[in-house]
Design a protein that fits this description.
Blueprint (H helix, E strand, L loop, with lengths): L35 E5 L14 E5 L2 E2 L12 E6 L4 E3 L10 E4 L8
Parallel strand pairs: 3-5
Antiparallel strand pairs: 1-2, 4-5, 4-6
């Protein structure tokens, strides 16, 4: 990815990065793998909730197809291969110091 991430677009087929579950074979922009997008959470009028009006950063990654635990909402994503942007739900093989983030949606492994 280029160094200036503020000018890059991110293709999100669903329009919502928390529900994105695009198979790698169907990805129309494979060069965006590893790219970031930051969004500000909208909120209703009145008092804000826990996540409303806060900024969240999402990264496009691949999931390991041989994971024993399918990613679910709130599961920890561990880096399996940082150079290929591959994550897994199994930290035992690589150690617990390789946290990539948190899954926001139940997605398909691989």
């Amino acid at each position: 990815m280029p160094n200036d991430l503020t000018k890059q677009f991110m293709y999100i087929s669903t329009g919502n990065p928390e529900t994105e579950n695009l198979p790698v074979a169907d990805d129309p922009y494979p060069g965006l793998m590893g790219g970031f997008v930051t969004v500000k959470q909208p909120g209703p009028p009145g008092s804000p909730g826990a996540e409303e009006y806060r900024y969240k950063t999402y990264q496009r990654v691949r999931t390991d197809s041989s994971m024993t635990v399918t990613p679910y909402h709130g599961a920890v994503a561990w880096w399996q291969d940082k150079t290929n942007y591959t994550v897994t739900t199994d930290p035992t093989a690589l150690g617990r110091g390789r946290v990539a983030g948190i899954f926001q949606y139940a997605i398909t492994a691989g």
